Amino acid sequence: MANLRAGLIGLGMMGRHHGRVLAGLEGVDLVAVADVSGQDPHGVAKGRPLLSSVDELIEQNLDYCMVAVPTAFHVDVALALAEAGVHAMIEKPLATDTPGAQKIADAFAEKGLVGAVGHIERYNPALQQARARIENGDLGDVYQIVTRRQGPFPARIADVGVVKDLATHDIDLTSWVRQQPFSSVAARTAFRSGREFEDMVSVTGQLADGTITSHLVNWLSPFKERVTVITGEKGAFIADTLTADLTFHANGNIRTEWDDVANFRGVSEGDVVRYAISKREPLLVEHENFRDAVLGKESDIVTLEQGLQVVRVAEAVLESASTGRTIEL
Q: Which residue numbers delimit the Gfo/Idh/MocA-like oxidoreductase N-terminal domain (predicted)?
């Protein structure tokens, strides 16, 4: 069977990583790359045709395309690919707003095409393990999911704020880990760096099954943190997605005889286990799953409909921050 013919549009910071993975992906040939500037600042092309538009890329007889252009251009590029019958994976967020995301989802559905969104955190080994163990009953009932995503300002981001750039990761992974949609959000944002868009957000949410959530995201911390804490009936998972480590803090089975301490703690401290897990590159796993989806094989992709829901929740977060109200979804 011939390899799939893939294209890449957008050769910025994320595009270079997608190009590296696509160039070595089994069963796929990266046949051409494109950027509206006509430039290849990170040397992604490596002898392949370097084009300057999605239309030129489509002329390369593509099976599918990776879209890594700025978010503001997602709709135009995605609709052109859909019209041409080209499957596509689109970097997150799916679009700058819900109407745009809906247009993309509708266009691919009408053409019967495979579309996915690049929410890469789903493929982090620590979170993959956490979800599998939750489904296995290792935590029992899940009570709360807390995420912290903090770090210095990334110069590469200019067209969206911290909610749509970073918090969309946490919206998606939280809903995915628990397999439940958000039912409500309440948020506060701050604008501290003099930019047009928010650079800090604190979100309190609830999933449809009653799980409560909390998300602290900013571009103003002098350290980098990517932590998800999932607390349940039997203990808590701590997933560090920077190191791809998953640690389990079990509730203790030893009765605390000191009444004052027992009454205060609610549960006692039990064993702590850091799991030994396979750590494959999340971006490679993401591309393998999309390739398999295009081939009609069993796969786990972030569907366009799921990407659309993430944008809806992100917009609800911003609405809550601007109005001071809890937004029901």
A: 5-119
| Helix extents (H) in 136-267 | 162, 168-178, 259-265
Q: How far is it, in rounded angstroms, from Cα 80 to Cα 54?
A: 7
For 268, the token pair is: 């006692």
- At residue 64, the pLDDT reads 98
User: Which residues is 247 bridged to in the sheet?
Assistant: 238, 274
CB 159 within 8 A of CB 72: yes
Residue 125 near residue 244 (C-beta atoms within 8 A): yes
Question: What is the per-residue pLDDT across 46-86, written as a single tens digit (0 to 9) for each?
Answer: 999 999 999 999 999 999 999 999 999 999 999 999 999 99
Q: Does residue 291 share a domain with residue 167?
A: no
**What's the rounded Cα separation, in Å, for the pair 134 and 173?**
14
Q: How many domains does the chain have?
A: 2
| 306 part of a folded domain | no
Q: Return the CATH number at 218.
A: 3.30.360.10
Alpha helix ranges (H) inside 150-274: 162, 168-178, 259-265
